[in-house]
DNA sequence: AGCTTTCTCAACACCGTGTCGAAAATTCAC
DNA sequence: GTGAATTTTCGACACGGTGTTGAGAAAGCT
């Protein structure tokens, strides 16, 4: 699985593997992961149940692969704001908008992968890497801003984790209760909430990009 | 099961039922709920596996009962602050401290009951009631404060839900990574984070109980 | 005591998981 | 193309946990 697998044309098996991942993404949209049987997954990819084990060790391993393929996608969303300087509410809101869209589509399994406390070792490993990465980037941005003079109310890593968690859980909640809130309102509220959480600023302060005062 | 069960001495069966709940609380501390077998639960309460089904329909039903018994406990924690007026940081912090203590002890199953997206119908029902109740109370407090002149940055119910979720997920995280942060620091940060989230105030404003300005 | 309700548990059927090994399909070298 | 090597497929099996049933033991009541 590590380095050796590199140079080779996409053989039949590779296609099947990808078919399995794609099938999983589709099937996991419909029912909770626990309810999905391996038989179902295999069937959706056009192979027999026992054939599944040729490609993945377990349902969790397949989910881990699925999560892994979403890594790049998720990163990109926030990249703009994370790289930016100052508050830049617009960039943040754009990132959150993209995230919400992704969750609206794949929320069902995203929840189970990112929110569930104990999703099994394979998934846990991949997702922890992903989360850590997100938190670290966030944390760095906070520190950067702190050095630029903007007050940050607490340990950057803790604040970053809270912000990241607030984001996921709000998206998860939005998926679970689709009609509960107007989408724009939710995004605005979340954007402001994060800014308030991280910088302690109120909407009035957004325009003035001047750091300085406490 | 509903109303009729009321007036009666605690018969043998009632004791067993409670023993089962207590046993579950203990067992669920050690391993994740999915890993615990009904056989184990029954054994811990001193009965045969098949006897379990006389008392509960499933593992989830037992967990639901366990969650239900914690209702009162959890309510009480936040009651003081929820009933108070003004910011009252101290009361909030006391409540959060109690919550963290509870999560430190029972975090394992609390996570699985309150964080897991799809914990089965029985648990979902109980916990949703509990969460709704918490959010409503919180929301009411926000509205009350808004009328008293304190600015609230967004729809009260949304803000309340965010605050409640932030609380749970921070506790869950604290349980999962015990040594990651100093406990006092975590509580202070969380307290301030919630106040910032809900009222947009910074620590400086805590003492002055004067509402007014934006 | 007798009768009724409550409780207990062994035996059973069921379903999903994961393993194995033999056969079929594919790929590769010539 | 042809044959050997490799990859892929799948039926059959063993295992473990769930939930049900029905007969009988224990507890509660008068």
Automatic annotation (TrEMBL), chains A, B:
**One Pfam match, by short name?**
TetR_N
Family annotation (InterPro entries): Homeodomain-like_sf (IPR009057), HTH-type_TetR-like_transc_reg (IPR050109), HTH_TetR (IPR001647), Tet_transcr_reg_TetR-rel_C_sf (IPR036271)
Which UniProt keywords are present, listed alphabetically? DNA-binding
Domain HTH tetR-type intervals: 14-74
Q: Which residues bind DNA?
A: 37-56
Would you say which domain of life the source belongs to?
Bacteria
Annotated protein name in UniProt = TetR/AcrR family transcriptional regulator
The record lists the organism as Paractinoplanes lichenicola
> Which lineage is the organism of this entry classified under, starting from the top rank?
Bacteria, Bacillati, Actinomycetota, Actinomycetes, Micromonosporales
């Amino acid at each position: 699985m590590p380095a050796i697998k590199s140079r080779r044309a996409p053989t039949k098996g590779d296609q099947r593997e990808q078919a399995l991942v794609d099938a999983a993404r589709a099937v996991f949209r419909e029912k909770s992961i626990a309810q999905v049987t391996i038989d179902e997954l295999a069937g959706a990819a056009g192979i027999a149940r026992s054939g599944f084990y040729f490609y993945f060790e377990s349902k969790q391993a397949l989910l881990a692969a699925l999560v892994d393929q979403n890594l790049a996608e998720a990163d990109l969303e926030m990249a703009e704001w994370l790289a930016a300087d100052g508050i830049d509410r617009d960039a943040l809101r754009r990132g959150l908008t993209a995230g919400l869209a992704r969750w609206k589509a794949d929320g069902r399994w995203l929840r189970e992968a990112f929110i569930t406390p104990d999703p099994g070792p394979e998934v846990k490993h991949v997702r922890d890497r992903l989360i850590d990465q997100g938190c670290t980037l966030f944390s760095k941005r906070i520190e950067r801003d702190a050095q630029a003079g903007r007050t940050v109310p607490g340990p950057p890593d803790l604040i970053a984790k809270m912000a990241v968690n607030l984001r996921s859980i709000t998206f998860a909640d939005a998926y679970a209760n689709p009609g509960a809130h107007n989408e724009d309102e939710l995004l605005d509220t979340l954007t402001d909430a994060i800014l308030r959480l991280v910088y302690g600023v109120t909407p009035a302060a957004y325009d003035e990009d001047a750091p300085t005062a406490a």
